[in-house]
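Researcher: For the record, we're logging two predictions in this thread. I'll number them. Prediction 1 follows.
Model: Prediction 1, sequence and structure:
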Amino acid sequence: MKKILKKISETAIKQGEFSFTTEQTETKWLGNQPATLAEIQEAEVRLGVTLPTDYKEFLLITNGFTTPNEHVDPSFSKASDIAFLKDVDPQLIEIWTENHELLEVAIKLARSIIIAGLGEEQYFLLVPPIIENGEWEYWKFASWIPGEDPYEGLENYFINVLDFLKSA
């Protein structure tokens, strides 16, 4: 995953279409310092979940990641800032709950953890499994997307971000 994140950083900075800090431009890196195991464990204890392995690996590479295009993709938060969507945007869950045909999505939104997009127009969510050792779901969620936009995992998502950047 680190190679993909590095390639996203280098490609976005080289294109020069977005604003980055001097440090990001000089280091050609849109990430932060890696999270410590203690920071990851604190987040897990605070949320009462064991986060998926690929997300923990991401945090050990970079504790947060600036989006190269804030209008299309959300910026990833530090481990200390991730939270349940219901605590960040309860109104969104309420809206989805009102439409009974979309109740299954609303139930998943109510359980989801926002790991990217705090204060932005779109979110990247981790949806915990209902059963122990079940599969986590990975969703990009935005007002202009009709429902959830699922991914096979974080690496799959970042490959899509890189492909989008290359095609821009």
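Researcher: Logged. Prediction 2.
Model: Prediction 2, sequence and structure:
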Amino acid sequence: MTETTAPGVVYRDQVRAEWVDYNGHLRDAFYMLIYSFATDALLDAIGLDAAQREARGRSMYTLEAHLNYVREIKAGTPVCVEVSVLEHDAKRVRVYLEMFAGDERETIVSASEQVLLHVDRAGPRAAPFDADVLARVAALRGESVGRVARYAGRSISLAPGAAAVSS
């Protein structure tokens, strides 16, 4: 189920038994699957649902994704993912996704930050958004202003400010 009310886009699902690992909680890869479904909901919200992707010959590709695992969740747990647009240009959109258990949105389960690229599938090559799609992206950005993106903009290291070590 998808909502297109503020903040941004909301996607709902449930942790399926086949997604659970040997530790009894959601397997790490399936967090990304849920986020992938949530970005599909975003595509629907901006006018790039399956029918429009086919008619326009356009799609979105993920260029980069960062994932933060905050709390474990178990089989049968309903999940809610909020999708916000942090920034965009003519061809790309940077989104922030937060996953919560159920509709309770105080305790975060996971977060992801992603950069998506609008693509003409005939190439495939990067392509500017059509005006109507860009307007919807901009509107979602406006709805997302002021929303706290707690895990956005992070890099990975063992310690804050640690320099990379090469071998």
